Automatic annotation (TrEMBL):
<feature type="binding site" description="axial binding residue">
    <location>
        <position position="405"/>
    </location>
    <ligand>
        <name>heme</name>
    </ligand>
</feature>
<keyword id="KW-0503">Monooxygenase</keyword>
<dbReference type="InterPro" id="IPR036396">
    <property type="entry name" value="Cyt_P450_sf"/>
</dbReference>
<dbReference type="Pfam" id="PF00067">
    <property type="entry name" value="p450"/>
</dbReference>
<dbReference type="GO" id="GO:0004497">
    <property type="term" value="F:monooxygenase activity"/>
</dbReference>
<dbReference type="GO" id="GO:0016705">
    <property type="term" value="F:oxidoreductase activity, acting on paired donors, with incorporation or reduction of molecular oxygen"/>
</dbReference>
<keyword id="KW-0560">Oxidoreductase</keyword>
<keyword id="KW-0349">Heme</keyword>
<dbReference type="InterPro" id="IPR050196">
    <property type="entry name" value="Cytochrome_P450_Monoox"/>
</dbReference>
<keyword id="KW-0408">Iron</keyword>
<protein>
    <submittedName>
        <fullName>Cytochrome P450</fullName>
    </submittedName>
</protein>
<dbReference type="InterPro" id="IPR002401">
    <property type="entry name" value="Cyt_P450_E_grp-I"/>
</dbReference>
<dbReference type="InterPro" id="IPR001128">
    <property type="entry name" value="Cyt_P450"/>
</dbReference>
<comment type="similarity">
    <text>Belongs to the cytochrome P450 family.</text>
</comment>
<dbReference type="GO" id="GO:0020037">
    <property type="term" value="F:heme binding"/>
</dbReference>
<keyword id="KW-0479">Metal-binding</keyword>
<dbReference type="GO" id="GO:0005506">
    <property type="term" value="F:iron ion binding"/>
</dbReference>
Amino acid sequence: MTVESVKDGASAAAALREPPVAGGGVPVLGHGLRMARDPLAFMSQLRDHGDVVRLKLGPKTVYAVTTPALTGAVALSPDYIIAGPLWESLEELLGKEGVATANGALHRRQRRTIQPAFRPDALPAYGSIMAAESHALVERWRSGEVLDITTESFRVAVRIAARCLMRGSYMDARADRICAALATLFSGMYQRMVVPLGPLYKVPLPANREFNRALADLHVLVDEIIADRRASGQKPNDLLTALLEAKDENGDPIGEQEIHDQVIAILTPGSETVGSTIMSLLLVLTEHPEVADKIRDEVEHVAGDRPVAFDDVRRLTYTANVVVETMRLYPAVWILTRRAVTDTELGGYRIPRGADLIYSPYAVQRDRRSYGRNEEFDPDRWLPERAKEVPKYAMSPFSVGNRKCPSDHFSMAELTLITAAVATAYRFAHAPDSDPRPRIGITLRPRRLMLRALPR
Ligand code: HEM
């Protein structure tokens, strides 16, 4: 590099503009209050202020990215890493050595270890478990019964992730404990992210004690799962075996802490996101009975009288489009954060090294500039000829780039099967204490869904 080119680079950086500050901030708290009060509405209106806008969250400046093209650019650029408030709050749960929070060479090595378990050609081996769990879910229900959909959705999500990726009958007994621990942890994590009052969470208040108990229980559970597998002497072809056999860059076995963190870092996002999406799917089936009827017709057409099976999934195109449209309007991962590791440029704006960025798949996927009748639930917008009209990166519920969810195909298969099984077996109506308003935590989901299962 010549002195001239360094000078050119420096003057180019100096010529870049500062992103505008979003309107509506107030002294001291900046935009924090509005963000805390109604984050979905707040994130959704930011594009009106610019493609990249600066937010003041208390004393901190955060850069919000609002257009599909630029959120894609951030996700694909090596100038940003996983960091920032969301991930810092998750580290306590996910550990520092798991794939979801690691960066750089460690992250690349870990992705190589876990990726084979999620490849499309690995999925058929999970098919019978996914189908059995989908049918077991509806077989637990009775006509006329009021169902607590939060419990039901998270239970099936944990069971499928655990049974497929960490095979073993021991999972049946432990899945419920994992569910209970995760439910407590995820609500506590979100609180720690939006109200970051570190020392307060160490005070032995009942809520903190409950959180710590759940965290300890999850760690014990993971240790038990690993110990049981080792004691069994078995090495089934699954993710747990891949983790136990993984080697570091020197060819040495990876450490115990890393194995432990990896199991947690895969089980937790896998359960929370799928559980939240199943809840949203059940809300859609309740509020759009005509959609549920079309799914039932499709399943009958494809599977006839027999129970729907994994091999049917690729022919359940309408059902899959319902899943996609549900993820568009109710993306479980509604907010993402990154940190700039270098002075860089985004959309003609200067992004300084160390800057925290946020962007919202929820806002991007509901933007009227990308979608006609943007708030309307319309699965047919994913028919191939219409899907072509959707701008690039305007629909990325699994993200893109090197942090893209490894489980996109796995998740689509299980969600399609569950939706098919559920819509074929029952219709649903809200029970009086059902509250479908969004609950905004680390993931987005309906607040409290209590549904009455009605005969088909
Ligand atoms: C990462 C969404 C299901 C494991 C991600 C990311 C998104 C996402 C958006 C990227 C985060 C970022 O860019 O910062 C979803 C959705 C799911 C789902 C919407 C289902 C509806 C699952 C499942 C598993 C899983 C079932 C595992 C069993 C992971 C892991 C990462 C990840 C390990 C971290 C990848 C990395 O950083 O390299 N997911 N996910 N996800 N997801 Fe998923």
